[in-house]
Design a protein that fits this description.
This protein has about 100 residues and is of the alpha+beta class. The protein is about 40% helix and about 30% strand. The chain binds zinc ion.
């Protein structure tokens, strides 16, 4: 549709078209903002590697009586844009990037 086509439309048809365009644009802008927000929330914004000792939970184990526990094992902590933190076991060896 070009300017010549628009001139052929009646005023009321043109007004309806304008309203439809405004409504469509508002929908798109809010949908795009929401999608961007969702992408940001899923993006990893910080990573850190930490060594931790763990307790296995067996009452008879040495770790139950106040020793350091098993390990140390490496864990990767990822902070997401949403603020949520994910923790992943990395093993006994120092991971790349730690
Ligand atoms: Zn134990």
């Amino acid at each position: 549709m070009n300017a010549k086509d628009l001139r052929r439309l009646s005023t009321s048809a043109l007004e309806r078209l304008r309203d439809a365009i405004e409504s469509e644009l508002l929908d798109r802008v809010s949908r795009e903002a929401r999608e961007q927000e969702e992408r940001d929330a899923r993006t990893v914004v910080a990573v850190r590697y930490v060594q931790e000792h763990i307790r296995c939970g067996k009452p008879s184990c040495h770790c139950a009586t106040g020793s350091a526990g098993h390990g140390p094992y490496w864990y990767r902590y990822e902070t997401m844009g949403s603020g949520k933190v994910r923790k992943r076991y990395e093993g006994k060896q120092k991971p790349k990037g730690a």
